[in-house]
Amino acid sequence: SAKALGKARYEVFDQKMHESASLLLELETALRHALLLKQDEFRLYYQPIVSLITGRIIGFEALIRWHHPERGIVSPQDFIPLAEETGMIVSIGQWVLYQACQQMHTWHEQFPSSLNLTISVNFSGKQITQTDIFKQVKQTLQQTGLEPCSLKLEITESLLMDNFELANTVLSELTALNIELHMDDFGTGYSSLNYLHRLPIKTIKIDRSFVNNIGSRGENLEIVRAIVTLAHNLNMSVTAEGIETVEQLAQLQALECDFGQGYFFLPPMEGAEVETLLAANFCYKNFLSN
Ligand code: C2E
Ligand code: MG
Ligand code: MG
Ligand code: MG
Protein backbone atom coordinates (compact mmCIF):
# COMPACT_ATOMS: atom_id res chain seq x y z
CA SER A 1 0.00 0.00 0.00
CA ALA A 2 0.93 3.63 -0.31
CA LYS A 3 1.26 3.86 3.42
CA ALA A 4 3.73 0.98 3.60
CA LEU A 5 5.64 2.43 0.69
CA GLY A 6 5.70 5.75 2.48
CA LYS A 7 7.06 4.12 5.59
CA ALA A 8 9.71 2.23 3.66
CA ARG A 9 10.75 5.45 1.99
CA TYR A 10 10.84 7.15 5.32
CA GLU A 11 13.09 4.45 6.71
CA VAL A 12 15.44 4.69 3.76
CA PHE A 13 15.50 8.43 4.16
CA ASP A 14 16.07 8.12 7.86
CA GLN A 15 18.96 5.74 7.32
CA LYS A 16 20.51 8.09 4.78
CA MET A 17 20.14 10.96 7.22
CA HIS A 18 21.79 8.89 9.89
CA GLU A 19 24.61 7.92 7.57
CA SER A 20 25.26 11.48 6.58
CA ALA A 21 25.12 12.68 10.17
CA SER A 22 27.69 10.12 11.26
CA LEU A 23 29.72 10.85 8.15
CA LEU A 24 29.79 14.48 9.19
CA LEU A 25 30.75 13.57 12.72
CA GLU A 26 33.51 11.31 11.43
CA LEU A 27 34.74 14.08 9.16
CA GLU A 28 34.70 16.51 12.07
CA THR A 29 36.70 14.13 14.27
CA ALA A 30 39.22 13.52 11.50
CA LEU A 31 39.52 17.26 10.85
CA ARG A 32 40.12 17.99 14.52
CA HIS A 33 42.72 15.24 14.59
CA ALA A 34 44.47 16.55 11.48
CA LEU A 35 44.49 20.04 12.92
CA LEU A 36 45.96 19.02 16.26
CA LEU A 37 48.34 16.27 15.32
CA LYS A 38 48.90 15.92 11.64
CA GLN A 39 49.09 19.29 9.98
CA ASP A 40 50.92 17.70 7.07
CA GLU A 41 47.51 16.43 5.92
CA PHE A 42 46.79 20.03 4.90
CA ARG A 43 48.39 21.39 1.75
CA LEU A 44 48.16 24.69 -0.01
CA TYR A 45 47.71 24.73 -3.75
CA TYR A 46 48.32 27.84 -5.82
CA GLN A 47 46.32 29.02 -8.82
CA PRO A 48 47.84 31.70 -11.08
CA ILE A 49 45.98 34.98 -11.61
CA VAL A 50 46.79 36.43 -15.03
CA SER A 51 46.65 39.99 -16.38
CA LEU A 52 44.27 39.89 -19.35
CA ILE A 53 46.17 42.85 -20.80
CA THR A 54 49.80 41.73 -20.57
CA GLY A 55 49.37 37.96 -20.24
CA ARG A 56 51.65 38.01 -17.22
CA ILE A 57 50.98 36.09 -14.04
CA ILE A 58 50.43 38.76 -11.38
CA GLY A 59 50.05 36.43 -8.43
CA PHE A 60 48.47 33.29 -7.03
CA GLU A 61 45.40 32.41 -5.00
CA ALA A 62 46.19 30.02 -2.14
CA LEU A 63 43.61 27.22 -1.96
CA ILE A 64 43.66 24.63 0.81
CA ARG A 65 43.42 20.87 0.24
CA TRP A 66 43.06 18.20 2.87
CA HIS A 67 44.74 14.86 2.19
CA HIS A 68 42.54 12.57 4.28
CA PRO A 69 44.31 9.25 4.97
CA GLU A 70 41.36 7.15 3.70
CA ARG A 71 39.28 9.51 1.61
CA GLY A 72 42.11 11.03 -0.38
CA ILE A 73 41.91 14.70 -1.27
CA VAL A 74 38.92 16.38 0.40
CA SER A 75 37.75 19.58 -1.34
CA PRO A 76 37.54 22.76 0.73
CA GLN A 77 33.90 22.97 -0.29
CA ASP A 78 33.35 19.85 1.83
CA PHE A 79 35.28 20.83 4.95
CA ILE A 80 35.53 24.63 5.12
CA PRO A 81 31.80 25.01 6.00
CA LEU A 82 32.28 22.38 8.74
CA ALA A 83 35.41 24.17 9.95
CA GLU A 84 33.45 27.42 10.08
CA GLU A 85 30.59 25.87 12.03
CA THR A 86 32.89 24.26 14.60
CA GLY A 87 35.26 27.21 14.93
CA MET A 88 38.19 25.18 13.60
CA ILE A 89 38.48 27.72 10.77
CA VAL A 90 40.31 30.02 13.15
CA SER A 91 43.31 27.67 13.47
CA ILE A 92 43.06 26.49 9.88
CA GLY A 93 42.94 30.09 8.72
CA GLN A 94 46.02 30.98 10.74
CA TRP A 95 47.87 27.99 9.28
CA VAL A 96 46.86 29.00 5.75
CA LEU A 97 47.91 32.61 6.24
CA TYR A 98 51.32 31.70 7.65
CA GLN A 99 51.98 29.06 5.02
CA ALA A 100 50.92 31.33 2.14
CA CYS A 101 52.98 34.30 3.32
CA GLN A 102 56.03 32.18 3.99
CA GLN A 103 55.78 30.49 0.58
CA MET A 104 55.43 33.76 -1.31
CA HIS A 105 58.35 35.27 0.58
CA THR A 106 60.49 32.23 -0.27
CA TRP A 107 59.57 32.60 -3.95
CA HIS A 108 60.44 36.30 -3.86
CA GLU A 109 63.90 35.41 -2.57
CA GLN A 110 64.36 32.46 -4.90
CA PHE A 111 63.13 34.10 -8.12
CA PRO A 112 64.05 37.79 -8.43
CA SER A 113 61.66 38.19 -11.37
CA SER A 114 58.78 37.23 -9.06
CA LEU A 115 59.19 40.17 -6.67
CA ASN A 116 55.97 41.83 -7.83
CA LEU A 117 53.88 38.68 -7.48
CA THR A 118 51.21 38.65 -4.81
CA ILE A 119 49.46 35.97 -2.79
CA SER A 120 45.69 35.97 -2.29
CA VAL A 121 44.32 34.33 0.86
CA ASN A 122 40.65 33.51 1.51
CA PHE A 123 39.31 34.86 4.78
CA SER A 124 36.08 33.73 6.40
CA GLY A 125 33.78 35.63 8.75
CA LYS A 126 34.83 33.88 11.95
CA GLN A 127 38.43 34.82 11.29
CA ILE A 128 37.72 38.50 10.81
CA THR A 129 35.77 38.79 14.04
CA GLN A 130 38.50 37.26 16.22
CA THR A 131 39.63 39.87 18.69
CA ASP A 132 43.32 39.81 17.80
CA ILE A 133 43.10 39.25 14.04
CA PHE A 134 44.86 42.52 13.20
CA LYS A 135 47.82 41.65 15.43
CA GLN A 136 47.88 38.11 14.05
CA VAL A 137 48.10 39.26 10.43
CA LYS A 138 50.70 41.90 11.24
CA GLN A 139 52.83 39.37 13.18
CA THR A 140 52.56 36.79 10.41
CA LEU A 141 53.89 39.33 7.93
CA GLN A 142 56.75 40.23 10.28
CA GLN A 143 57.61 36.60 11.02
CA THR A 144 57.58 35.50 7.39
CA GLY A 145 59.19 38.68 6.04
CA LEU A 146 56.48 39.21 3.40
CA GLU A 147 55.73 42.83 2.47
CA PRO A 148 52.11 43.78 3.28
CA CYS A 149 51.63 44.97 -0.31
CA SER A 150 52.24 41.37 -1.46
CA LEU A 151 49.23 40.08 0.47
CA LYS A 152 45.63 40.19 -0.75
CA LEU A 153 42.75 39.12 1.45
CA GLU A 154 39.67 37.69 -0.25
CA ILE A 155 36.45 38.22 1.63
CA THR A 156 32.84 37.44 0.73
CA GLU A 157 29.64 39.40 0.93
CA SER A 158 28.21 37.08 3.59
CA LEU A 159 31.16 37.85 5.85
CA LEU A 160 30.15 41.51 5.75
CA MET A 161 26.46 40.83 6.25
CA ASP A 162 27.08 39.05 9.54
CA ASN A 163 28.75 41.93 11.31
CA PHE A 164 29.43 44.87 9.06
CA GLU A 165 30.66 47.40 11.61
CA LEU A 166 33.20 45.07 13.22
CA ALA A 167 34.37 43.72 9.87
CA ASN A 168 34.64 47.24 8.50
CA THR A 169 36.84 48.35 11.40
CA VAL A 170 39.24 45.40 11.12
CA LEU A 171 39.39 45.50 7.34
CA SER A 172 40.14 49.22 7.35
CA GLU A 173 43.01 48.63 9.80
CA LEU A 174 44.40 45.90 7.57
CA THR A 175 44.22 47.98 4.41
CA ALA A 176 45.93 50.82 6.29
CA LEU A 177 48.91 48.43 6.55
CA ASN A 178 48.89 48.27 2.73
CA ILE A 179 47.17 44.90 2.39
CA GLU A 180 44.70 44.74 -0.51
CA LEU A 181 41.10 43.72 0.01
CA HIS A 182 39.31 41.72 -2.69
CA MET A 183 35.60 40.93 -2.86
CA ASP A 184 35.27 37.22 -3.70
CA ASP A 185 32.33 35.45 -5.43
CA PHE A 186 30.74 38.79 -6.26
CA GLY A 187 27.05 38.59 -7.10
CA THR A 188 26.29 35.23 -5.46
CA GLY A 189 25.56 36.22 -1.85
CA TYR A 190 22.89 38.34 -0.29
CA SER A 191 24.44 41.24 -2.09
CA SER A 192 24.00 44.75 -1.03
CA LEU A 193 25.74 47.34 -3.14
CA ASN A 194 25.65 49.52 -0.07
CA TYR A 195 28.98 48.33 1.32
CA LEU A 196 30.98 48.66 -1.87
CA HIS A 197 31.92 52.29 -1.41
CA ARG A 198 32.06 52.02 2.38
CA LEU A 199 34.94 49.57 2.31
CA PRO A 200 38.44 49.96 0.86
CA ILE A 201 37.93 47.21 -1.71
CA LYS A 202 40.54 47.11 -4.46
CA THR A 203 39.24 44.36 -6.70
CA ILE A 204 35.96 42.60 -7.37
CA LYS A 205 36.16 38.92 -8.28
CA ILE A 206 33.30 37.88 -10.56
CA ASP A 207 32.02 34.47 -9.54
CA ARG A 208 32.57 31.71 -12.04
CA SER A 209 28.83 31.05 -12.32
CA PHE A 210 28.63 34.33 -14.29
CA VAL A 211 31.77 33.65 -16.32
CA ASN A 212 30.42 30.21 -17.21
CA ASN A 213 28.08 31.23 -19.98
CA ILE A 214 29.33 34.43 -21.44
CA GLY A 215 31.14 32.51 -24.16
CA SER A 216 28.84 30.35 -26.23
CA ARG A 217 25.25 31.47 -25.61
CA GLY A 218 26.05 34.66 -23.78
CA GLU A 219 23.25 34.80 -21.17
CA ASN A 220 25.47 36.43 -18.59
CA LEU A 221 27.31 38.79 -20.89
CA GLU A 222 25.33 41.86 -19.82
CA ILE A 223 25.69 41.03 -16.13
CA VAL A 224 29.44 40.72 -16.45
CA ARG A 225 29.58 43.93 -18.48
CA ALA A 226 27.62 45.72 -15.75
CA ILE A 227 29.91 44.43 -12.99
CA VAL A 228 33.03 45.51 -14.90
CA THR A 229 31.55 48.99 -15.49
CA LEU A 230 30.46 49.31 -11.86
CA ALA A 231 33.90 48.29 -10.58
CA HIS A 232 35.77 50.62 -12.92
CA ASN A 233 33.48 53.53 -12.03
CA LEU A 234 34.29 52.90 -8.36
CA ASN A 235 38.03 52.78 -9.20
CA MET A 236 38.24 49.07 -8.54
CA SER A 237 39.66 46.41 -10.81
CA VAL A 238 37.98 43.16 -11.81
CA THR A 239 39.15 39.55 -11.76
CA ALA A 240 37.10 36.90 -13.56
CA GLU A 241 37.08 33.47 -11.92
CA GLY A 242 36.71 30.15 -13.68
CA ILE A 243 37.81 31.05 -17.24
CA GLU A 244 37.77 27.72 -19.05
CA THR A 245 37.59 28.55 -22.76
CA VAL A 246 39.28 30.86 -25.23
CA GLU A 247 35.83 32.31 -26.10
CA GLN A 248 35.25 33.32 -22.49
CA LEU A 249 38.70 34.86 -22.41
CA ALA A 250 38.06 36.86 -25.60
CA GLN A 251 34.71 38.14 -24.28
CA LEU A 252 36.26 39.21 -20.99
CA GLN A 253 39.05 41.01 -22.80
CA ALA A 254 36.48 42.79 -24.98
CA LEU A 255 34.68 43.87 -21.78
CA GLU A 256 38.01 45.21 -20.45
CA CYS A 257 38.10 42.84 -17.49
CA ASP A 258 41.52 43.31 -15.87
CA PHE A 259 42.52 39.90 -14.52
CA GLY A 260 41.49 36.29 -14.86
CA GLN A 261 42.01 32.87 -13.38
CA GLY A 262 40.75 29.49 -14.46
CA TYR A 263 41.51 26.12 -15.97
CA PHE A 264 42.05 27.79 -19.37
CA PHE A 265 45.25 29.13 -17.85
CA LEU A 266 46.12 26.70 -15.09
CA PRO A 267 44.40 24.80 -12.28
CA PRO A 268 45.51 25.16 -8.65
CA MET A 269 48.98 23.57 -8.45
CA GLU A 270 51.44 22.32 -5.87
CA GLY A 271 54.33 24.57 -4.94
CA ALA A 272 56.87 22.58 -6.96
CA GLU A 273 54.89 23.12 -10.17
CA VAL A 274 54.68 26.83 -9.47
CA GLU A 275 58.46 26.91 -9.16
CA THR A 276 58.80 25.51 -12.69
CA LEU A 277 56.65 28.39 -13.98
CA LEU A 278 58.58 30.98 -12.02
CA ALA A 279 61.94 29.61 -13.15
CA ALA A 280 60.79 29.94 -16.78
CA ASN A 281 59.35 33.45 -16.16
CA PHE A 282 56.25 32.12 -17.86
CA CYS A 283 53.92 34.50 -19.76
CA TYR A 284 50.70 34.04 -21.81
CA LYS A 285 51.58 36.71 -24.39
CA ASN A 286 51.07 34.35 -27.30
CA PHE A 287 47.52 33.41 -26.32
CA LEU A 288 46.49 37.00 -25.92
CA SER A 289 48.12 38.88 -28.75
CA ASN A 290 45.30 38.50 -31.29
P1 C2E B 1 37.04 30.57 -4.20
O1 C2E B 1 37.82 31.38 -3.25
O2 C2E B 1 36.02 31.27 -5.02
O3 C2E B 1 38.12 29.85 -5.11
C1 C2E B 1 37.94 29.57 -6.48
C2 C2E B 1 37.54 28.13 -6.69
O4 C2E B 1 37.30 27.92 -8.08
C3 C2E B 1 38.61 27.11 -6.31
O5 C2E B 1 37.93 25.97 -5.82
C4 C2E B 1 39.26 26.81 -7.65
O6 C2E B 1 39.92 25.57 -7.68
C5 C2E B 1 38.06 26.83 -8.54
N1 C2E B 1 38.40 27.09 -9.94
C6 C2E B 1 39.36 27.88 -10.44
N2 C2E B 1 39.34 27.92 -11.78
C7 C2E B 1 38.33 27.11 -12.15
C8 C2E B 1 37.79 26.73 -13.43
O7 C2E B 1 38.25 27.17 -14.50
N3 C2E B 1 36.72 25.89 -13.43
C9 C2E B 1 36.18 25.41 -12.28
N4 C2E B 1 35.15 24.58 -12.35
N5 C2E B 1 36.67 25.74 -11.05
C10 C2E B 1 37.72 26.59 -11.01
P2 C2E B 1 38.42 25.19 -4.53
O8 C2E B 1 39.91 25.21 -4.45
O9 C2E B 1 37.73 23.89 -4.50
O10 C2E B 1 37.89 26.09 -3.34
C11 C2E B 1 36.52 26.26 -3.14
C12 C2E B 1 36.24 27.33 -2.13
O11 C2E B 1 36.68 26.94 -0.84
C13 C2E B 1 36.97 28.64 -2.43
O12 C2E B 1 36.28 29.38 -3.42
C14 C2E B 1 36.94 29.29 -1.06
O13 C2E B 1 35.70 29.91 -0.82
C15 C2E B 1 37.08 28.09 -0.13
N6 C2E B 1 38.49 27.98 0.29
C16 C2E B 1 39.53 27.38 -0.34
N7 C2E B 1 40.67 27.50 0.38
C17 C2E B 1 40.34 28.22 1.48
C18 C2E B 1 41.08 28.70 2.63
O14 C2E B 1 42.30 28.52 2.76
N8 C2E B 1 40.36 29.41 3.58
C19 C2E B 1 39.02 29.66 3.44
N9 C2E B 1 38.40 30.36 4.42
N10 C2E B 1 38.32 29.23 2.38
C20 C2E B 1 38.96 28.52 1.42
MG1 MG C 1 38.86 33.09 -3.31
MG1 MG D 1 36.38 33.19 -5.65
MG1 MG E 1 33.90 31.41 -6.41
From TrEMBL:
It is found in: Membrane. Residues 24-282 form the EAL domain. This is Amino acid permease. It comes from Nostoc punctiforme FACHB-252. The chain holds residues 839 to 1128 of 1128 of the full protein.
